[in-house]
Specification:
Blueprint lengths: L1 H17 L22 H8 L2 E5 L4 E5 L3 H15 L1 H8 L25 H7 L3 H11 L15 H13 L6 H21 L9 H19 L8 H13 L6 H17 L9 E2 L4 H25 L44 H21 L6 H16 L18 H26 L13 H18 L10 H23 L9 H17 L5 H18 L23 H6 L1 H4 L16 H10 L4 H11 L8
Parallel strand pairs: 1-3
Antiparallel strand pairs: 1-2
Helix pairs in contact: 1-3, 6-8, 8-9, 8-10, 9-10, 10-11, 10-12, 11-12, 12-13, 13-14, 13-15, 14-15, 15-16, 16-17, 16-18, 17-18, 17-19, 18-19, 19-22
């Protein structure tokens, strides 16, 4: 019987493969159209012919516009009925042991030890403790990690209380969701301060809950389109994104799984195409989820310097409205109210603002990953999109201005400003990435002066912000990468000034050196926060010493004009940067006080330090250096 079913399925698949090609989709369904929210009814009707979202109460599946897929669905149901007894027995069978690698993308590819439901449930904390952790997660104003608002709290809490009444009835995907929530809370404790009851435990619990989340996703099968599948994957990506180590490539791979799962469940199509119609409350949450998914795709591609998936995806899902949850009607017959202006904060405001910025940095990623050189007009167009996204930040999303008096306590500072500073730094790093390749051409062609000015201004802003960062920030890989990236831009500009001594930019050399010296001084102060920070400081200090002793350098020791040196003169460089850290540094004395860096150890450090070498290689290739110091 099973062979007959398989034979019938293969026949249908061959018919699908030999059918005429589907006509090209209408122009209204274009990849990443920023104005899709303005589709008129006729456009929507045309788009709907491409496929539909099918909801049956327990699944959300995207179905293409082809009747043969209905036949395949019936065959699949027949197979499921025939194999029900085998599936029931297989559910209670102990799986074979597998490798227990549990880091990055390996979590989603079977590289974790399988586990049964009893052991999964036994890992959950006691109800009283879990109640408190869940409440902390949904306390958005004070929760230190910016988690996308993609879970409807009242619905989840009802399901949570039902789970507590009968834990054995929860499916694996829902259990994965609760473990992902617990993991994010433990990550917040570990990074932003542990309460006494979790002192010394939060990191190990975070790792345990990460593994449990992955095991639940594997056991629940993300291809089955069960509720909360995409949400659980997205929260898992949030935890990976906020880790302190450098996991850019692994996160990029994981995001590919996330995007494909969302497409498989139809999130790339606006809920208007669903069958049956989706209530406004659920429809808005689907739009939020899709925006959170594509924002992650843009961020991870930009951070890893690798192509994104969104540029090849035809999506017409509208941007979610800036509304409070209590404004979303659950009745399908009711309409959504108009969106509030972004200056009125709601739980979804940050997601919308970040989504628009991520759309812009996704364009930057496209330009840097393009196999064919982009025109300068494309660069300027992307610059405008990036600037418009940044200028549209509402006042409460602008990065806080550090007070002139004593700074706030580190934990309070992180809690209040982490999200805003994160958006601000993404913008400036994107500006540097977009325009860095034109630093060298700008020396001989005034046409590229705008790019040179944009790039240096953003790099200077990032290094200036370093002065106000507490030591906790140096523990995050993306902070170290961003600050090092900005320093590399300055090092390149100094080398270009040396190669073109007659350029008008030579007058900026002392200021560039002073900014770098201040930055390296702050790296030294915070070098013990983690091993990577110490390696970063050694490399940057060695590069700075090479620049200062290079013939023609102005402002360094070799010119007899040490900026911020121990002898007085320009000694206010470090003090202006950080009055608390300036005294006793002794870094800008004689060269002998700099780290001893010989050729062998310097090369060793460069091999392990967190530097965007793809960007640096691009600098060197564009500059065309024939001689001079090798950094």
């Amino acid at each position: 019987m099973r062979q007959r079913i398989d034979q019938l399925e293969n026949m249908v698949k061959r018919l699908i493969a030999h059918q005429p090609q589907i006509p090209q989709e209408p122009a209204s369904l274009t990849p990443e159209n920023p104005k899709l929210g303005n589709l008129n009814p006729s456009d929507t009707q045309d788009v709907a012919s491409a496929g539909k979202i099918v909801l049956d109460g327990a699944h959300s599946v995207y179905q293409g516009g082809d009747d043969w897929y209905d036949v395949l669905e019936e065959i699949d149901k027949l197979k499921n009925t025939w194999n029900q007894a085998q599936d029931d027995r297989r559910e209670h069978r102990i799986p074979p042991p597998q490798s227990q690698l549990a880091d990055g993308s390996s979590l989603l590819f079977g590289q974790v030890k399988p586990i049964d439901r009893i052991e999964i449930l036994a890992t959950l904390p006691p109800k009283r403790e879990m109640d408190n952790l869940v409440a902390i997660f949904f306390d958005r104003p004070s929760f230190p990690i910016a988690v996308p608002p993609i879970i409807h709290e009242p619905t989840f809490m009802w399901e949570y209380h039902e789970h507590c009444k009968n834990p054995s009835q929860a499916n694996f995907i829902w259990l994965g969701l609760i473990f992902s929530i617990l993991g994010i809370v433990m990550l917040a404790y570990h990074q932003h301060g542990e309460p006494p009851e979790y002192e010394g435990l939060s990191e190990s619990l975070f790792q345990l809950y990460r593994i449990r989340t992955a095991q639940c996703l594997l056991s629940g099968d993300i291809a089955k389109c069960l509720p909360y599948t995409v949400e659980t994957l997205r929260f898992n990506a949030t935890a990976e994104l906020n880790r302190k180590d450098d996991n850019r490539r692994g996160l990029w791979i994981m995001t590919g799984v996330l995007v494909r799962t969302a497409i498989n469940m139809g999130y790339h199509r606006d809920p208007a195409h669903s069958s049956p119609p989706i209530p406004p409350l659920q429809a808005e949450y689907r739009r939020r989820i899709w925006l959170a998914v594509i924002s992650m795709d843009n961020m991870t591609s930009f951070g890893a310097g690798l192509p994104r998936m969104l540029s090849a995806i035809c999506s017409d899902t509208r941007e979610p409205r800036n509304l409070h949850d209590w404004e979303l009607p659950a009745n399908a017959a009711m309409d959504l109210p108009p969106a509030r202006p972004l200056r009125e904060p709601t739980p979804v405001t940050y997601l919308i603002v970040k989504g628009r910025l991520c759309h812009a940095i996704g364009r930057v990623a496209d330009l840097t990953c393009n196999s064919t050189p982009s025109s300068y007009a494309d660069v300027l167009a992307t610059d405008r999109i990036l600037s418009e996204a940044y200028d549209s930040f509402p006042p409460h999303m602008q990065p806080p201005t550090p007070p002139a008096a004593a700074p706030p306590q580190p934990q309070e500072q992180l809690r209040l400003s982490y999200a805003q500073i994160g958006l601000w730094s993404i913008y400036h790093r994107a500006m540097c990435t977009l325009h860095r390749r034109f630093l060298a051409p700008a020396k001989t062609n005034p046409h590229y002066r705008l790019s040179r000015d944009r790039c240096l201004a953003s790099a200077r802003a990032l290094l200036a912000a370093q002065r106000d960062l507490s030591e906790q920030w140096y523990r995050f890989a993306h902070t170290r990468q961003t600050l090092t990236f900005a320093a590399m831009v300055f090092f390149l500009e100094l080398e270009l000034i040396r190669k073109f001594p007659g350029s008008e930019d030579a007058v900026e050399q002392p200021d560039l050196l002073q900014d770098l010296e201040t930055s390296v001084a702050l790296w030294e102060v915070n070098r013990d926060t983690c091993d990577e920070a110490g390696r970063q400081w050694q490399v940057l200090a060695g590069m700075l010493e090479s620049v200062r002793t290079c013939p023609g350098a102005k402002g360094g020791d070799s010119a007899g004009d040490s900026v911020g040196g121990g002898g007085g003169g320009g000694g206010d460089g470090v003090e202006a940067a950080s009055a608390d850290h300036a005294s006793g540094l002794g870094l800008w004395g004689p060269p002998s006080q700099m780290p001893v860096v010989d050729d062998f150890t310097f090369e060793k450090e460069l091999a392990t330090v967190e530097i965007d070498w793809a960007a640096w290689d691009s600098y060197i290739e564009d500059a065309g250096f024939e001689s001079g110091p090798i950094y």
